[in-house]
């Protein structure tokens, strides 16, 4: 099927008329067009923090569930995902199936002994972490470190994280770090990691350094906000106080990060899959401009993954809306068409 898309394209808002020539956009007419889609065009959405293929922490990766979760992403207009941590080695079709999103992943989570969910990830000694991380990055391009865990776990020391970053960067990979403690966040930023995942309780004075060194923030804001009411109902404990303190100020941290020039990436980290629009709305409600909240889930996130936007030669992904989603973020709930790898996988005519 040859697909043609035309309309106002974000981020610039100018009119474009593109043909899918295989998996590449071109302005040159392609014969035998079978589908023409018109509207407001985004170059495909991105969920930069999602763990498909499992629903209960500690359970193994389920291939059928993985495929179902990825279909839910596509239905929402998500044409690329980053999975910073998977419950198992993905099947060969992961990231390559023409009907499912492009995918980047970090393999199993790497954690300190005694931390993270039992049955998931790999526990690694400090003196082995750089070598293990480097080997993972050679295989998949990314590695994910559990920099701290819950309220009481001691964070990975900054010198260990620095060694990981140096080793992974030496082989051309990138490092994502889970952190929800101030100390863990400070260590991640000092080590120069590529992305901070969650970043709860991150000290605001670190944001300028993050922007300067190119460390992205994936705040998973909506997911944390969803959990907060349930945590508030729990009996008082140090863990409850830790989570409530961080979750209550997380929106203001996101706004400050955007203001400081930190690259913010939209990621859900929650069930059900295919709800990236909830994170975009949460980012906007926190104080990001709707344009920038959309960028975090589309063109800017794609650039972070090395994917150009709606231009000749770029991968042929697009999600199409009836109206400008910047003026009405609820448009994200109603894509009229999704084009993935040059194929119309939802809607159109």
UniProtKB/TrEMBL annotation:
<protein>
    <submittedName>
        <fullName>Imidazolonepropionase-like amidohydrolase</fullName>
    </submittedName>
</protein>
<feature type="domain" description="Amidohydrolase-related">
    <location>
        <begin position="41"/>
        <end position="345"/>
    </location>
</feature>
<dbReference type="GO" id="GO:0016810">
    <property type="term" value="F:hydrolase activity, acting on carbon-nitrogen (but not peptide) bonds"/>
</dbReference>
<dbReference type="InterPro" id="IPR006680">
    <property type="entry name" value="Amidohydro-rel"/>
</dbReference>
<dbReference type="Pfam" id="PF01979">
    <property type="entry name" value="Amidohydro_1"/>
</dbReference>
<keyword id="KW-0378">Hydrolase</keyword>
<dbReference type="InterPro" id="IPR032466">
    <property type="entry name" value="Metal_Hydrolase"/>
</dbReference>
<dbReference type="InterPro" id="IPR011059">
    <property type="entry name" value="Metal-dep_hydrolase_composite"/>
</dbReference>
<dbReference type="InterPro" id="IPR051781">
    <property type="entry name" value="Metallo-dep_Hydrolase"/>
</dbReference>
């Amino acid at each position: 099927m040859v697909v043609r898309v035309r309309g106002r394209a974000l981020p610039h808002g100018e009119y474009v008329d593109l043909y899918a020539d295989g998996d590449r956009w071109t302005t040159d007419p392609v014969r035998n067009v079978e589908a023409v889609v018109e509207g407001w065009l985004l170059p495909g959405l991105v969920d930069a923090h999602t763990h498909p293929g499992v629903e209960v922490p500690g359970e193994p990766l389920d291939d059928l569930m993985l495929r179902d979760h990825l279909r839910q992403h596509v239905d929402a207009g998500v044409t690329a995902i980053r999975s910073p941590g998977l419950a198992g080695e993905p099947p060969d079709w992961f990231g390559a199936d023409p009907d499912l999103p492009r995918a980047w992943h970090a393999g199993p989570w790497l954690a300190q002994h005694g931390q993270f969910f039992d049955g998931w990830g790999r526990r690694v000694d400090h003196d082995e972490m750089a070598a293990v991380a480097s080997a993972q990055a050679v295989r998949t391009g990314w590695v994910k470190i559990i920099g701290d865990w819950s309220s009481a776990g001691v964070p990975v020391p900054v010198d260990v994280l620095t060694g990981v970053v140096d080793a992974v960067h030496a082989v051309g990979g990138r490092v994502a770090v889970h952190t929800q403690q101030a100390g863990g966040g400070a260590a991640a930023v000092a080590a120069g990691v590529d992305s901070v995942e969650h970043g709860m309780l991150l000290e605001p004075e670190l944001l300028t350094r993050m922007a300067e060194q190119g460390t992205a923030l994936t705040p998973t804001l909506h997911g944390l906000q969803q959990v907060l009411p349930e945590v508030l109902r729990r009996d008082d404990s140090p863990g409850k106080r830790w989570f409530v303190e961080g979750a209550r100020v997380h929106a203001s941290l996101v706004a400050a990060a955007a203001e400081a020039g930190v690259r913010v990436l939209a990621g859900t980290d929650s069930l059900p899959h295919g709800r990236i629009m909830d994170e975009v709305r949460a980012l906007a409600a926190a104080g990001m401009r709707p344009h920038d909240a959309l960028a975090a889930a589309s063109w800017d996130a794609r650039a972070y993954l090395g994917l150009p936007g709606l231009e000749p030669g770029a991968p042929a992904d697009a999600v199409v809306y009836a109206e400008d989603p910047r003026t009405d973020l609820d448009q994200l709930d109603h894509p009229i068409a999704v084009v993935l790898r040059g194929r119309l996988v939802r809607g159109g005519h």
